[in-house]
Design brief:
The complex is a heterodimer.
Chain A lengths: L6 E10 L2 E11 L4 E6 L5 H9 L2 H4 L5 E6 L2 E3 L4 H6 L2 E4 L11 H5 L6 E2 L2 H6 L5 E2 L1 H15 L14 H14 L5 E5 L7 H16 L3 E5 L3 H7 L2 E6 L2 E7 L7 H9 L20 E10 L6 E9 L3 E5 L6 H8 L5 E7 L2 E2 L5 H6 L2 E4 L3 H5 L6 H13 L3 E4 L6 E4 L1 H15 L15 H14 L4 E5 L7 H18 L2 E5 L3 H7 L2 E6 L2 E6 L5 H8 L8
Parallel strand pairs in A: 3-10, 3-11, 6-9, 9-10, 15-22, 15-23, 18-21, 21-22
Antiparallel strand pairs in A: 1-2, 1-4, 4-5, 7-8, 11-12, 13-14, 13-16, 16-17, 19-20, 23-24
Helix pairs in contact in A: 6-7, 10-19, 14-15, 14-16, 15-16, 16-17
Chain B lengths: L4 H9 L10 E2 L7 E2 L3 H7 L1 H17 L3 H20 L2 H5 L8 H18 L3 H29 L4 H23 L22 E3 L6 H5 L1 E4 L2 E4 H18 L2 H11 L1 H6 L4 H27 L1 E3 L7 H11 L9 H26 L2 H34 L1
Antiparallel strand pairs in B: 1-2, 3-6, 4-5
Amino acid sequence: MAEDYVLEMHGITKHYFGNRVLNDVTLRVKPGEIHGLVGENGAGKSTLMNILFGMPVIHSTGGFQGEIKYCGNQVIFNSPRQALESGIGMVHQEFMLIPGFTVAENIKLNREPLKDSFLTKAFGQRMKKLDWLRIRSDSRAALDTVGLGIDEMLPVVGLPVGYMQFIEIAREVDKEGVRLLVFDEPTALLTETESEQLLSAIKRIAATGVAVIFISHRLDEVLSICENVTVMRDGEVVTSVGTPDPTTTIERIAELMVGRKVERPEYAKRTQEPSDEDTILNIENLEVDMPGEEVHGITLSVRRGEILGIGGLAGQGKIGISNGIMGLFPAQGLVTKDGSEIPLNDPGHAYQQKLAFLSEDRKVVGLILDRPIEYNVTVVATLVKSMFQKTFGARSRGIEIRDKKSAWNFTMQMIRELDIRCTGPGQIVRRLSGGNQQKVCIARALALEPEILLVSEPTRGIDVGAKERILDLLVSLNREKGMTIILTSSELAELRKVCDRIAVIYGGNLVDILSPDDSNARFGLTMSGRRAEAQ
Amino acid sequence: MNRDYRKRIFKKNQPNEASPSDSRFLRPGGRGFTILGLREILVRNIVPIMFVVLCLLGVRWSGKPALFLLQEVVFRMSRNSFLVLSLVIPVMAGLGLNFGLVIGAMAGQAGLIFVAARQIPGMPGFLTACLVALPLALGLGYMIGKIMNKAKGREMIAGMILGFFMNGIYQLVFLFGIGTVIPFSNKNMVLPRGIGLRNTVELKSIKWVLDDLAMAKIGKVRVPLATLALSAALAWLITGLYRTKLGQDIRAIGQDMKVSQVAGIQVDQTRVVAMMIATVLGAIGQIAFLQNIGTLNVYDSHGQIATFAIAAVLVGGATVSRATVGQALLGTFLFHLLFIVSPYAGQNLLGSAQVGEYFRVFIAYAIIAVSLALHSMQRARSMASRR
């Protein structure tokens, strides 16, 4: 019965540097079937597709275990080219189009119909002439299949984003012998009507017998067009369900995606629990132009003394919020702390207002890797608040020089308090492990004596044990020093573990503010952009 | 700052929102042109327009009769346009302005030195020079192409420095190699010490062979038809290349290497091929140029070739990322017309031909500098608008 499937992936297991990212994953797709693949960020969807396409990143990190059967034959693709040649198409999330070329030229890129010219004999195949009539007619046919009625001779540059997606698809459709098409978040950049058109185009394509793998975070779309849905979580297939089954609802899939019950340890009670009456930071209509993480007008109040989580899928804008408040990316809107406005687009001013920031980009923005711990911990405080300096000469007009001794002492104190594993304040930061580097970042933030600490992806690229320590550290800063913490993280589990409230961002907008105790289904739905009522 | 991308897409989807300047009229080959407002036409072609004005003023101030200027321009066009045209293909391939042209010129000069040493006369001499230069240029072009693949995004400076480097090798070969490693029988061309070539080599045997092959007289102007035909053939070949698979690949990699790679175009190999073509054209162009000049400054003739050819194509309105045959030809015409009139204009206006001379060199470098700055500004803007 193996031939019934276009693609069978069996027992796929993949390790990245000792971390298991895929475990015994199985995926089967029939001809003409639209198969949904859903899961949170990091669930392993992209890795699975990378394996299917034989991406170099897979082979350079030690390959994978398991077998892939394509059209009944066991295959391993060593390069994306091989996969494409054997009839597997991919519609990319980012557009693979040449802006200066026409729509037709892009559709037929490197597959142009050719005809002989007198030069062919002398100089070989590449001197063949382009057959423009066929380029146009083939492109027209492909465009009609996807239902895009634009002139095929228009240049791509200047076309609306939505059209580009359709052109990409037209290109895949036009390829001869396509048996399987992979759509990776094809509707992410489309408007609602465009999405509908795209979904019906996908249905038309599938009706011709082409198998489709549809990856999307929009669960309603997945349910509306897919016959089967495979749900992945933490590198494993949780379940594979058919949509005709009436028990398959958006809520159920959302719950399966988010999965595991989160253990929330009992943290120490505060003397005064945070409340809506006492806010420390008010964000009104914040818009941030951070590439890939744009924020489109968010209004949010932060209670004094709370840990506020900001969650959401990658690319939906959650990271943009802290970066916008801190002035690292162009932003507009009104942000007030205790009633006084924080001017945006001015990082220095945010520091003056007792805000401190731990960037998600620890190694580039957060640290100066080739300088010692002591320098990294104190440099911002020196620049912003003239701390760790002593005056040379007359008191008011003297030259300020760096007070190495107080900087050293402060760093020693931080090393002890935060338990930074190092040889001493003089060690170069590059030599530290990820977790200890993050602690250096925290120490640097503490040197500023902040009232609000904005933390962005603090556990990214840090091993499991160290993750726990970083989170515990943040909680103890909150409980013992009364610091308000805004924690942005892609890992929902860690947000639910330490936060008092979790704001979920989708498409650059705030969807809802949830309690960490809300149901998995509610979290799953909210993260795919749908406001759900508490049950 | 409208950052709501959904709104943005929606807006663009409204068909009646399109402004008149958006309507495009296209022909096969994808070289679409846009109907633009007068202001935009002026802005886009500011460089050629400036030069037309400069040239008109220069012609007036030079006080020279039109016939004299026309004759000069015809000769300069015939000997220079091939070199300028050779720059079009590297620009198409995204390699930028080919400062490596000097290397092709060196190969051409090596061919000329061979012919001068053997004193092969006439047309056979010209063809022999091309034949000797061809394998050299192909080899050097291959090398330049390979190096440029290692220096993606910095091709222009890499080409310029490679030119300086190869100049050193060239000097080593002809200043110390001749008479020691390379046997050389023609003692007239060698320095008195017996090693190394003299600075000047007379190209008597092939002087004007191409020009005199078909010299027409139109009115009172002598027109070297054969030399012009050589450039015309190249122009025709370049436009023909657009219509071939290779040309399409070259255009694709010139626009976006990553997308081309994903589509399966052999990016690196195509870049090498483009560079080899450019270098061979540079060699032939230099031979055609020097047969008109009639003397070869062994250590000097190639020196300014790339700079002046690049300045010419830029004057025609080309940019680092876009150059056409028409721009190359227009640029050659304007740049050399200015070259001819500026010393006279300087003499008449300021009493010194030197000032005019200074002015034209100054212009050549200024135009390159401005063009490079404009290009990086445009690129930054298009990067910003892509998001």
